[in-house]
Amino acid sequence: MNKAVTARAHTNIALIKYWGKKNSELIIPTTSSLSLTLDKFYTDTTVFFDDQLEQDELFLNNTMIKNKALTKTSEFLDLVRQMAGIKAYANITSVNHVPTAAGLASSASGFAALAAASSKAAGLDLNRKDLSRLARRGSGSASRSIFGGFTEWIAGEDDLTSYAHPIQENVTMDIQMLTVVLDGSPKKIGSRQGMQHAIATSPFYDTWVAESAVDLVAMKHAITNNDFQALGELAEHNALQMHSLNFTAKPAFTYFNGDTLNILNLIQDLRHQGIQAYATMDAGPNVKIISQSADTQIISNAIKNNFPSALVEIAKPGPGISYL
Ligand code: ADP
Ligand code: DP6
Ligand code: CO
Questions:
Q1: What is the pLDDT of residue 183?
Q2: Within a 13 Å sphere around the CA of 320, how many CA atoms are in the beta-carbon half?
Q3: pLDDT value at 1 more than 90
Q4: Which domains does the chain have, with CATH numbers?
Q5: Cα–Cα 20 to 30 A to 93, which of 144, 241, 245, 296?
Q6: Where is the Diphosphomevalonate decarboxylase-like N-terminal domain (predicted)?
Q7: ipTM value for the complex
Q8: Which residue has its alpha carbon closest to ligand 1 atom 12?
């Protein structure tokens, strides 16, 4: 207690998506999911529990936060305080080296870093499985950012059985992710709200649950077999299925914008030219392109030529949680 702890967590992008909860309070998902942790994007969070404070205070990217993000953080810290048997409020300083709330998984790195820093600052010594369970309570995708490389979040049934574990932390496949940021501003419909609406109103939701289980098995095979093409095809297919839930919700909504579709078209054109490029999209208009090192520069150039205002960054597999 009474020491400041800093943790770093990297973001992860799901290849098999999480899109819906069977228990909203505990964040138990309807499906298991599988992701790749990225080296390029991360969050550094410092937590200090201070008996003198009258409430939690959050500084995110050098700005004092007073809105829902503070409430979410405070509710999360209540869990940590309960586990550690302490009452003190905390000072939290966090820097996102990733756009916040733009569909690039800031909630994943954000809550994984917060889970690691706050639990240690509160005097707890959690193993990675328990850290994953804790991070999950802040944001589901954060459960996967405890680990590096390919990670599976086992849906489970309750708080004890829903956690992530590493499938392959030291990735052997030649795989990269180009992030194409068309719009880095915060989304209008948060992931939490979007998935809730899809589960409640899309007639295809049950089909999604069934198909996602099939995709997950095939994805694990692709990883074991170092089969890049199978991985890419499955990831793109699974992402489009997820977004179809939003198109078929009532009322319908989408995270895509016009350029999202233009980039999907460009990726198809590249494939017709023999370049292996596959797309995945999360709760935002920005596209992540899965590629291999020999093709990455060609793909990056094609994007820049066609979308001059897009910011393209090349990410590789990244590590799990660390303390600074
Ligand atoms: P994203 O696509 O970036 O994951 P979400 O809608 O899932 O977007 O989550 C964004 C929310 O996550 C923010 O509004 C905030 O509440 C929370 N968040 C993001 N980064 C942090 C952080 N570093 N510390 C605490 N909370 C964070
Ligand atoms: C589309 O983990 O951000 O990125 O659990 O409500 O915080 P909450 O949602 P979040 O959802 C992520 C959705 C996704 C797919 C994925 O990362 O699996
Ligand atoms: Co998120």
A1: 87
A2: 24
A3: no
A4: 5-170 (3.30.230.10), 176-315 (3.30.70.890)
A5: 144
A6: 9-164
A7: 0.99
A8: 107
